[in-house]
Design a protein that fits this description.
This protein is mostly helical and 282 residues long. It is built from 10 helices and 2 strands. The termini are far apart. It has a two-stranded antiparallel sheet with strand order 1-2. Among the domains are: 7-93, no CATH class; 107-140, no CATH class. Residues 1-20, 226-282 are annotated as: Disordered.
Length: 282
């Protein structure tokens, strides 16, 4: 079945030198209604003009499914690079058209009672500010960078992972050095605190403290243990018979009937009974 010629394939010529040169994807069957070399070239040209894959496919009377299938074929490396370059060029042209509309406005038809009476020029201030913020962010967007596209976000994530690995490697390499530096800094601070405390003591207190340290060293050298010293309150006599110590006194039992209560039974009287008795009816 021969594909009918579509008038949408007729396009304006693309200026020379703007399109990237590429090697067409080799095809096993060179069908006249398939992705021929000429049709691939015109597809890239249309993609550079419109910035839209769907519009470029309509321009060459082909489907978008076929275009993406062609892009995945073996030997389509040059075609894929030309595709990406054409999209960038198409986006630039779209930006130029948007800027032209933002500056010069667009003609909008004016109707009166259902009849076209003329046109007026409409300006889109929001579109103008959008273009200014993206083309001159240092002046109109507080110095913020332009919004990233999908490729820019992928590159940013890749750089973040790379920076993360470098930071972890540097941190692992300097872990030992940092620990030694922290310990040295703590020891220096403790030494300064001890020196400041020592200078504030009186001569008598210093002498007493030095004597205390001397006696402490003697006890450590002699292997002193408090539970072996009879003069210490923690001394444990190995010859003492602790089983003969007085047993705990038994707890006395409560007296019989301590839990029983005597409940006084009271008969509740009706107030009318008392009044009747008082009046002599009883």
């Amino acid at each position: 079945m021969t594909r009918r010629t579509d008038n949408r394939e007729t396009r304006l010529p693309v200026p020379a030198g703007e399109l990237p040169a590429f090697t067409p994807v080799p095809r096993q069957c060179n069908r006249h209604d398939g992705w021929t070399e000429d049709r691939q070239l015109r597809f890239i040209e249309a993609l550079a003009d419109t910035g839209s894959v769907e519009a470029a496919c309509r321009a060459v009377n082909m489907s978008t499914v076929g275009a993406y299938y062609l892009r995945r074929q073996k030997g389509a490396e040059s075609f894929r690079k030309a595709w990406a370059a054409a999209l960038d060029l198409g986006v630039q042209r779209i930006e130029d058209v948007a800027m032209d509309r933002a500056l010069n406005g667009v003609d909008v038809p004016v109707y009166s009672y259902g009849q076209l009476v003329g046109t007026r020029t409409a300006y889109n201030d929001r579109l103008l500010m959008f273009m200014l913020r993206n083309r001159a962010p240092e002046r109109f967007a507080d110095g913020r960078a332009k919004g990233l596209n999908a490729i820019g976000k992928m590159d940013l994530e890749r750089e973040k992972k790379k920076w993360r690995k470098e930071w972890e490697a540097e941190r692992a390499a300097s872990a030992g050095k940092d620990e030694q530096q922290v310990l040295a800094s703590l020891n220096a601070k403790l030494g300064q605190m001890h020196e400041r405390w020592w200078t504030q003591l009186s001569p008598r207190t210093r002498a007493a403290f030095e004597e205390y340290k001397r006696l402490e060293r003697e006890d450590e050298e002699a292997g002193y243990r408090c539970w072996d010293d009879p003069e210490h309150e923690a001394y444990v006599d190995p010859d003492a018979d602790y089983a003969d110590e007085a047993e705990d006194e038994p707890i006395p039992l409560p007296p019989p009937g301590w839990g029983e209560r005597e409940v006084e039974e009271t008969e509740e009287e009706n107030p009318r009974w008392r009044s009747i008795k008082d009046e002599g009816w009883g």
